[in-house]
Amino acid sequence: MKKIYFSFILLLTITVSNAQLTLTKALNSPVVGDVFIQNYYDSTTAINKITGTNKVWNYSSVVTGTASPNNTTYTTVASIPGASAAFPMATLASFNPPANSSTSYYIFKNNLTADEILGTFAGTTATTYSNTEIDMTYPFTYGSSFSDVSGYSTGTGTNTTSQSGTVTLTGMGTGTVILPGNITLTNCLQVKLTGVATVIDPFLGSPLTITVTGFSYYHASQKFPLASFSYGRISYMSTITNDFSFSINNNVIPAVGIKENSNTAFFNLFPNPVSDKITISTDTKLSKDLTVSITDISGKLVKTEMIDTDLKNYMDVAGLEKGIYFLTINANGINSRKKFIKE
Question: CA 271 to CA 297: how far, in whole Å?
């Protein structure tokens, strides 16, 4: 039961679509095929919650947590047997893989100016929200704010289960986010979330109240938040259960650190961070012609080049924007990748 209600807290903290300094429907609304993976971290120090403009949020001291990553995958409603009939107006669904007969899906309707949750679908059971939940309105930027009331009721008579709640989102800050691994991202947007929900379940006997306060940070390079943290509280009769979570987007810091295998990586990069030319150093004799490519943290290819190792061993990266990149070398049919930071 605890897992079910903490999933409500998680949903509140992750269903704010991505943000740049201004969120738009075209760029920030989730679509079929999107995958958002959150890796969890622990903190031994106070978490910075300062709001306002031109702030610095330094979370570089968080350490890898023990909780499993959270994977939110977006798919078609038609791919879920029975869901289209239950939600004829739906345009999108999300779930946590793997998909099976007991998987629970959130069902969405994406309007021109908002993302809206119509209900949930699990197995053959549809739970339709009597008051749908507005997930995000567009455009959204620093100073923007909206509140939404949502709820549902299932069952009849004394077997009725219901949930009602209010969520408020506010653009609270702009500034720089610092993450582990010397990752510094400027021009970020801070969004604060506050939510409260009351659950009435005949098996509980007494109402259960969930409250959550969370902050998420967004950057133009990512569709989903760079980092998020939330404080949740479940109150049931005289028992209060508190929860804290801190997560970082897997595109920014992969679950196993930077995606490179030390057993197969046959080169090093220096200087790193770099401002203009990055040198490729290796103790292994490479083929004369190497295919070298650079991708940004979203996976977009930004530069590719054939390098004649008899003539040079570097790439010019002066034209790249500041940020995190991955340099991949293909040599003798083997790919090897290293991270570098452009400053």
Answer: 19
Please name every residue paired with 84 in a beta bridge, in sequence order, or none if there are none: none
- The model carries a pTM of 0.69
Instruction: Give the dihedral sign, CA 297/298/301/306.
Output: positive
**Measuring CA to CA, how many Å separate 93 from each of 89, 156, 172, 193, 222?**
12, 27, 29, 22, 20
Strands 70-75, 35-42: pairing is: antiparallel
- Number of Cβ within a 10 Å radius of residue 183: 20
User: What confidence tier does 264 reach under pLDDT thresholds 50, 70, 90?
Assistant: very low
Element (H, E) at 11: helix 2-14
The share of the chain scoring above pLDDT 90, in percent, equals 42
Angle at 140 between CA 139 and CA 143, to 5 degrees: 135
Give the model's pLDDT for residue 202: 85
> Encoding tokens for residue 55?
């702030």
Within 13 Å and on the Cβ side, how many CA atoms surround 237?
Answer: 3
Q: For residues 108 and 132, is the Cβ–Cβ distance under 8 A?
A: no
